[in-house]
Each structure stands twice: as C-alpha cells, then as structure tokens.
# Entry
Amino acid sequence: MAGLKRVVVGFTEEMLSGIDSLAQETNRCRSMLIREACSFYIAEKRRAMLRERMKAGYLEMAELNRALAEEFGAHLDKDEDWSGDAWVWRKA
# Structure
C-alpha cells in the first residue's frame, strides 16, 4: 500500500450497497473497486475533454478551410482530371 493516501468519502447507503455487491461479484475489495472506478472516470473525462477541444478546433478552422477550398476550386481547369494521387504527381 506504499504511495497510497487515505481519503474519507461519503456514500449513501444505496450506493455503498451497490459498491459492496459489485466488489463481491468481481472478487475485489471495496478500495480496489473504487480506485478502478476513479481511474476509469478520470480517463473517460479526459477523453471527453479532448474530443471537445478537437471539435472546437475543427469548428474554428471550418471557415478558413471552406475559403481555401473555394479559392482552390476557382483555379481548377474543368477539363483536367483532378482526382487521386495522380494529380499530385502530375501537377506538383
């Protein structure tokens, strides 16, 4: 138990009963179950926060990306094949 800190957390009787039931069903002690639950919660919250930051970034860049696509599209020669990697090598 080196490196662990003790904390006092209050639970309702119903929640504590659920914790104890799950601990018994999964063959874990109450402390281990709560540590695992906290680790899982922290990881999920961090993933959700990252997704929100990425979403905000994509939304922030959407207008610039649209403008660049329109600008690039205005210079396309309608008779040329602009699909796939072949264009990149032919036109670069």
Q: What stands out?
A: The CA atoms of residues 71 and 83 lie 17 Å apart. The two ends are 62 Å apart (CA to CA). The mean pLDDT is 85. Residues 13-76 form one domain.
